[in-house]
Amino acid sequence: MSKEISPAKNFIAGGFGGVCLVVAGHPLDTIKVRLQTQPSVATGATPLYRGTWDCAKKTVSKEGFFGLYKGMFAPILGVTPMYATCFLGFSIGKKLQTPAENGNYNLQQLFKAGMLAGVFTTVIMAPGERIKCLLQIQAASSGKPKYAGPADCAKQIYRESGLFKGLYKGTGATLLRDVPASGMYFMVYEWLKIAITPADQKPGELSVLRVLFAGGMAGVLNWCVGIAPDTLKSRLQTAPEGTYPRGVRDVFPRLIKSEGFFALFKGITPVMLRAFPANAACFLGYEMAMKFLQWATPNL
């Protein structure tokens, strides 16, 4: 059975991996949210953004290159505790189950452990997602920005709607996305690590390219599961107060009725373009940080 990793090392390594993910993937995340939340138009009319490349060009033209990084400070602040909690939740999920004699877990066990990680992270992730989405879409609208930054956005949301109805708006939708998607995420990564490990090596000795491949594919499969509920979450979290009184139960039928089933997959191109490099960077950052910590602090 693999050696137990301390919570402190999980915290540090998971946080570093999360920072790597945000830096690598935030520009395409901004494009994804703007495509998901752009106003619907009448048949034959020209939408605000015609696609991923058009959204990127308009964003850079209007706001400069760093317009693609709008709203990044909020997820950066959240990634260290979130990814620490995520990896810790996954390890707890594994501990609650019995592995095979060789110490490995089957796919179903890995999926269940990953689902628990998704529950753990939602507590931290939901407010950050709400703030991030609001900051990302306000830059695309005309007129004076309502929020000066993440802290101002959080203050205004709390003042207007409180903690649970304001900052935690969309928590159910975040769970709907993250629980199954995290299950897929960790299951694919752990399975691929074993599948692509040469016969004379251990999964912890994989080369950089193999870690990048396993992490990138985990990210792609994660978003195959998560893109539809993510669209519902983005719509709910950026809508004016009172638009969807029953939450996702209102967002889903209205979206299907007004824009059709495939509206659930708006933004899928930037999501998939982002998924591989961002999550490859995340897992590589995690693995490298963990190796460094194991070397630097063997007794921690």
The total of helices stands at 10
Rg measurement, Å: 20 Å
Overall mean pLDDT score? Answer: 88
Low-confidence stretches: none
Distance between the amino and carboxyl termini: 19 Å
Number of DSSP-assigned strands: 0
> How helical, in percent, are the residues?
over 70%
Secondary structure category: mainly alpha
> What gross morphology would you assign?
globular
* Major sheet: none
Strand content: under 5%
How do the helices and strands follow one another from N- to C-terminus?
Answer: HHHHHHHHHH
Could you walk me through the main structural features you see in this protein, from its secondary elements to its overall organization?
The chain is an all-alpha fold and 300 residues long. Helices cover 71% and strands 0% of the residues. Helix 1 packs across helix 2, helix 4 packs across helix 7 and helix 8 crosses helix 9.
Question: Secondary-structure map with pairings?
Answer:
Blueprint: H1 7-37, H2 52-63, H3 73-95, H4 107-138, H5 150-161, H6 163-167, H7 171-195, H8 208-238, H9 248-259, H10 268-296
List the keywords.
globular, mainly alpha, 10 helices
Give a quick summary of the entry.
This protein is mostly helical and 300 residues long.
